[in-house]
Amino acid sequence: MDLIITFPFLFSLFLLIKNRKNQAVTLFNVTILGLSIYVIAHYFTNSEDSSFLAAILFNHFTPLYLMIGPFFYLFILIKLKIIKKLRRVDLLHFIPFLIHLISIIPYFFMPWTEKVNLVEQIYINPKVQESLNINLFFTPKFNYIFRMLHFISYCIISLRLIQLRIKTTPLHNKVQLISLKKITTIFISLTVVYFIHIIVILVGGEYKTTFINVIIYLDVILFVGLIFEIIKYPELLFSNKKFKSSYIQNSPFYLREVNKNLIPESTYMNIEAKIDNMKKNSDLLIDPDTNFDVFANEINENKYHIRLYLKYNGLSFMKLKNEIRVQEAIKYLESEDRLKLDYIAKKSGFNSPSNFYKIFKNITGYTPSEYEDKLSKNN
Hints:
Elements: H1 2-18, H2 23-45, H3 51-57, H4 62-79, H5 95-103, H6 105-108, H7 112-124, H8 140-167, H9 174-204, H10 210-231, H11 245-250, H12 265-280, H13 283-286, H14 292-299, H15 303-312, H16 317-334, H17 341-347, H18 353-364, H19 368-378
Helix pairs in contact: 1-2, 2-3, 2-4, 2-10, 3-7, 4-5, 4-8, 8-9, 9-10, 16-17
């Protein structure tokens, strides 16, 4: 268990050092680093045999917790292209960090043996924290509550920005946003679980109870879930220089801009008109046998220009085809007839139900069954 707990911290520290030149990646890695310190602090301060580590983790890193909210929020701003890079005005977000850093100066200069004795006393009787004098400005209770509200506030604002962008984004570009939404939701869940953890300890006066152990394991499960969500898109953690260009071109996190002037205006307009017509009369794109050559022949323009047009609009042939098929499936799901999902998959041009489920969820964020349930609740 110790290895599982400490691995995310060591890994995120390694990634932070390796990718420090990429601003967005650095912001995200610092967020993960801060959260991993949160998790290991929970774990080792609940362990009777970890006085040394508990003494290191207790109070020393609390200013860092007031940085991870702003770091994540600024990462979201860059990813949503609201800002291109950090600005001087963004330093205002770190004023609480500086105030808290100043407030714990007395604790930094406390002798090491006293710190170890302190964490051992806290383990025996958590209520000792109420009388501690290790902060110049704030009480421990205030610090716990403020840190939670501080981080959750930044996460909620970030989540709101993501949801607003989802509403105005075409289906084929929602993959990135849906992933960011899941990550933000896990961040909020981790913080709430952490706060429950602290309240139970302060009220109950014990570190070792079955309920607290359940909370710790829930914390770990959420963090592992976060790691798995991030692993789907390693470009969140690494600089794009680490990947092949073919991977980056298909990544929803790196949609490169294409010069529209490379396509003659008349050609561009013709391609756009033909594709719009295909969207209205979707039989060609729904047909499983339609490949790019058939698609290009129908448009009757240079294949190079067609690919450029698709790329300029954040698409590929398969993305366009999948989007049309999913839209067709949604029509069947929203019809008054209660049709079987296998039938809908076949009528929408999917070769197999499993492929239908996978593509539908990637584009909409829901499985077909979940989408049906959502429709039933709305109705």
